Amino acid sequence: MRVTVGIGTVAGLGVFVAVAASVAAQRSPSPPAQTAAAEATARIVASAQALVATLDDAGRTKVQFPFDSPQKSRWSNLPTGIYKREGLRLGDLTAAQRAAAMALLSTALSQDGYRKVVEIMRGDEVLRGGRGGGGVRFGEDEYYLAFLGVPSVSAPWMLQFGGHHLGINMTLAGRQATLAPSLTGAQPASYSFEGRTVRPLGDENDRAFALMATLDAAQRKQAILGYNVSDLVLGPGQDGRTIQPEGLRASALSASQQTMLMDLVHEWAGIAHGALAAPRMDEIRASLPQTYFAWSGSTTAGSAAYFRIQGPTLVIEYAPQRGVDHIHTIYRDPTNDYGARFARE
Amino acid sequence: MTLVASTDVSAHRTEDHLQAARIGLEPDSVVITLDVTPGIAVAESFIAALDHDHDGSLSTEEQRGYAGQVVSALKVEIDERPLHPRLVSWSFPELTAFRRGEGTIRLKIQATPPAVSAGPHRLLFRNALLAGHSAYLANALVPESSRVAVTAQRRDRDQSELTIEYTVRADSTATLACVLGSLAAASLMVRFRTSIEARAARCADHARW
After folding, report:
1. How many beta-carbon contacts under 8 Å exist across A and B?
2. Which of A195, A244, A322 minimises the CB distance to B139?
3. pTM (predicted TM-score)
4. How far does A241 lie from chain B, in Å, by closest CA?
5. Which chain A residue is nearest to residue B178, measuring alpha carbons?
6. With 60 as the cut, is the pLDDT of residue B209 above it?
7. Residue B157's closest chain A neighbor by CA?
8. What angle do CA B101, B104, B110 make, to 5 degrees?
9. Domain ranges (residues) in chain A
10. pLDDT tens sequence across A320-333
11. CA distance A248 to A220
């Protein structure tokens, strides 16, 4: 019995040392990467300050919350009228203020991330044309922006932007940043804008189906869940929960399939500014052997199918709502939602 | 600027109920959080079934009564031995949220598992609430205790039934206590035996003299 305890202790210490070394390695990007991340944060802070400079006292009061405010977890996929948001409402801003708010988002997010956000908001404008009533309001005016903590190049603070089908929660702490937890969604998932078809979450969908198409029979058997998944398991309101992973381990994927999986992950992690997303992608890549890919639904492109990517520091869910034209997705880091790890450091 | 939707849109859940169960399995407790979200099309009948006095709001007793119905529709077993789930807490939204298809009732339910030996075990969770009119989610949470490890989850097609296979490791503190106790007992036995032998030797000496 004593021998068993000894082996367990030694094994536990070994795992601890390996994980600690891995985490330390992940948290130590190269000096140029650190500089790029610090510069990105500085530009985001400057952009936030530029927005604040356009506001009057009432606006400054509306936008600013304490860092540990309950506002942190007040986000939802629901539209205004069903879910009450706080912060600056875009529809209440002057043209100059609204431009400053959108400039802040374009600074904080990657080009693709900003495009995604704008297209989700524009999709809600489509809904505004055909729906509403009963106090429910749709449209680009119904998105809210808030700061939790004062924008800083060193101290932790959070940029929160959201509305129907959108919840961007970006916590920054010096050269570190996380988007977890964030929500993207789309309804309609496809619409026309100035003569072209827009699919806000089209790349997520297409990359996932492309990856599924490369799986062989044995891999599919592992990846495909034998049951229906009708919505997000860890959506809004499910902070702090970690479900048991299921599906196909990424270690069972070929190198090219692993690249496809990482490209799929990048659709979420890469919403943030590139310099801030890069270390996060490195972190996710480092734990790829312990990451799972699970699928529920048809594997024929164009179908409505749920998928989940889950690793030690990652949860991504993509959940069509009874059809291909209404999508909910969630992006989480069970070890660092709302920058909990940054605050500890 | 022109915006045109390519298809019809349907904003929220309609005729069915979404029931999402998340099950936390620990050595000395089973905690189930269950979210129930009725669809728009069934909202009025759902409200009528809850709001017995038709005053347009749900009293604590009306909430408790419905929550009790939910709990009684659940079946929880470990190794085919039934557990007795009990309601710990609940929250209900405003009735208007139900009418929009986005009102979620949140229940926390707990059960005490029987003492189980180290080794493999099986928890069965079955949700018969609003059967045939629900979409279900059922998931095991990663156990907080390192003594419990989920090894597999099996569900029926609609997730109204979930079987969690798991293993339980021996409690290391109990094991350590057992080891220390055994050592102490062995030590006492050695000392007792030495004492007996010494007495026997002294007796032998007395006998010789």
Report:
1. 115
2. A244
3. 0.85
4. 7
5. A1
6. no
7. A227
8. 155
9. 9-27+200-344, 31-193
10. 998 999 999 999 99
11. 8
Give the residue from B99, B41, B95 showing the smallest Cα distance to B66: B95
Q: Do A305 and A294 touch, CB atoms closer than 8 A? A: no
Look at chain B and count its residues. 209
> Exposed, middle or buried: residue B23 (CB in 10 Å: 0-12, 13-18, 19+)?
buried
The CA distance from B32 to the nearest CA of chain A, in Å, is 12
* pLDDT score of B41: 85
Interface probe for A, chosen from B2, B7, B104 (most Cβ of A below 10 Å), is B7
Q: What is the mean pLDDT of residues B23-28?
A: 95
Residue type, B61: E
Instruction: Please report which confidence band the pLDDT of residue B191 belongs to, taking 50, 70 and 90 as the band edges.
Output: low
Cβ-nearest to A131 among B11, B99, B153:
B11
The two beta strands, B74-78 and B119-127, are antiparallel
- How much is the pLDDT for B96? 86
- Three-state DSSP class for residue B117: coil
Question: Which long-range CB contacts under 8 A does A269-272 form with residues at least 24 apart?
Answer: A269/A179, A269/A331, A270/A110, A270/A112, A270/A113, A271/A109, A271/A110, A271/A112, A271/A113, A271/A116, A271/A117, A271/A168, A271/A179, A271/A182, A271/A184, A271/A331, A272/A108, A272/A109, A272/A110, A272/A113, A272/A170, A272/A177, A272/A179
Is residue A334 within 8 A of residue A315, CB to CB? The reply is yes
Q: Which residues of B touch A1 (CB under 8 A)?
A: 175, 178-179
Q: Which residue has the tokens 């399995």?
A: B25
ipTM metric:
0.83
